[in-house]
Amino acid sequence: xxxxxxxxxxxxxxxxxxxxxxxxxxxxxxxxxxxxxxxxxxxxxxxxxxxxxxxxxxxxxxxxxxxxxxxxxxxxxxxxxxxxxxxxxxxxxxxxxxxxxxxxxxxxxxxxxxxxxxxxxxxxxxxxxxxxxxxxxxxxxxxxxxxxxxxxxxxxxxxxxxxxxxxxxxxxxxxxxxxxxxxxxxxxxxxxxxxxxxxxxxxxxxxxxxxxxxxxxxxxxxxxxxxxxxxxxxxxxxxxxxxxxxxxxxxxxxxxxxxxxxxxxxxxxxxxxxxxxxxxxxxxxxxxxxxxxxxxxxxxxxxxxxxxxxxxxxxxxxxxxxxxxxxxxxxxxxxxxxxxxxxxxxxxxxxxxxxxxxxxxxxxxxxxxxxxxxxxxxxxxxxxxxxxxxxxxxxxxxxxxxxxxxxxxxxxxxxxxxxxxxxxxxxxxxxxxxxxxxxxxxxxxxxxxxxxxxxxxxxxxxxxxxxxxxxxxxxxxxxxxxxxxxxxxxxxxxx
Length: 495
Known about the structure:
Blueprint: H1 14-27, H2 44-49, H3 51-54, E1 58-71, E2 74-81, E3 84-91, H4 92-95, H5 97-104, E4 111-120, E5 126-137, H6 153-158, H7 160-166, H8 168-190, E6 194-195, E7 201-202, E8 214-217, E9 222-226, H9 231-239, E10 244-252, E11 264-273, H10 277-296, E12 300-303, E13 306-309, E14 315-318, H11 319-327, H12 337-347, H13 357-369, E15 377-380, E16 392-393, E17 396-400, E18 402-407, E19 410-417, H14 422-437, H15 448-456, E20 461-467, H16 468-476
Parallel strand pairs: 3-5, 6-10, 14-15
Antiparallel strand pairs: 1-2, 1-4, 2-3, 4-5, 7-9, 8-9, 10-11, 11-20, 12-13, 15-18, 16-17, 18-19, 19-20
């Protein structure tokens, strides 16, 4: 005959006590880890939402015990699942002495199944009157104390599973993240775009100014890189005639970590034949507005107390005009690299010896103008020096048909009228190679296969890259990129 669980000594050590309880269950032939499935037929929120039709009807829930109270012959439990929580009312007379004794030994964190009828307590709380209970999985590590929760930021990121259990707002953020990405996909699918996948392991990591990660492919005995961009393969597909393509995927950049940067992050790039950067602006404005309404139900969002309105037409300003507006310097009047460097010294803007006028214009924008781009703003017409894959403006070849989309002072997207001239592209790759040789670890290298694709012929194309993580940060009012990445990059703990 099985031992009575009430007569077993349990350790005072909280972790060992849980192992003791598990051993008791095993000795009784009720090892929870041998359970393979559940008869759950409803979620906790559905019980509350459909109480009028479910009252006095039998249901089966499954979830995690997050609170337990009561004494003697009656116990109250709060059981949580993904949707929410519901109260469970358990009586010894209904469950039987042995099952009730087991239930009394349940710990906060245990995953359980409860069958019973739906009712409302005298206090008016919708509950389940338990008629049968089952332990589905034993929690062998105590959860953080309820009223203080898991507040250590580093520990929250390292143990995201506990963070999700203890902090409902965190779970809500990641549910919204999933909905945001799904909304983007639906929007683009309705616009006739095709979702594709391109290689992560590449021999030539191009399409952005960033330092790559290196790895080695043993089977081919070849060094490879992790991609830093999606661009060059997606453009190959435009050459192949797919016309409207996009990819949402991880890219990897060997750079620092801060509130807006993580070495691996989610990037979306899309390319559309027979349009230009103006077409990308129109698409971006419509997409952001659609996603905000779809996920949040409003085009007005608040981030860190600042309201931004996606319902109004987005501002469009050239980089030259933005720099003039916020620094007082008119780069139209600066003709040479030396003049630009002299003005930079005068204004206290740091630059490097190899920088040209266009580089310094961009530094001025970052120093004086970027922080003012709070409301949705397209900053257009960048200098050619910082845009190696972009079409020149026909009326002024020192600048290119490019924009960066800003909100909250952050760059949210980067778009071009794509360069489709293979002769011009080869010259720009050559300039990038010279920068690489001079020690610029972020410079691109020549991609001969991509040049071959351009020589086959690429239609006039608009292209854009979106930082999905930053978009999620803004739409969920999250202070740091790590708050919207389930498993952000963390320094390993020394053992």
